[in-house]
Amino acid sequence: MDLTPDWEYVADRVMGGVSTGGMAVETVKGRSAARLTGQVSLDNNGGFVQMAFDLADGASMDASPYAGIEIETCGNGETYDLRLRTDRLTRPWQSFRAEFLAPPEWQVIRIPFVHFAAHRTEAVFDPAGLRRIGVLAIGRVFEADVAIARIALYP
Description:
This protein has 155 residues and is mainly β. The protein has strands at 8-11, 20-28, 31-40, 48-54, 68-75, 79-86, 95-101, 107-112, 117-119, 130-138, 142-154.
């Protein structure tokens, strides 16, 4: 099931960090894609740039008939986080996360729901309450450049 994201850009500046970047829909290697770029800095307790979108206008979506998330991506060969939020999470720093490598050429990557690890929460991942999906450059000083041409739920 293809998703139709309305991506938004968020950076650590919301918490006092100094990372810089942006998100734009543009043509990347012949494909229309959402592209996250920026400089991730750990200064001032920062460390991320992100593009994310809400599902079902911010309400939860039942993704339980699906096995995971499929992305068509390319980038600068760096590792990025795919983060999921559900209706069981109450704090902005809580999520379920999995890493992926953004290769220099377009590639389809599937990440099963069972590969998402809980972060700063005791909650158990329940795809029946999926609310938000994000792509993050996080946790180390580096230049972010990752594009997503397609994102979907796969059976």
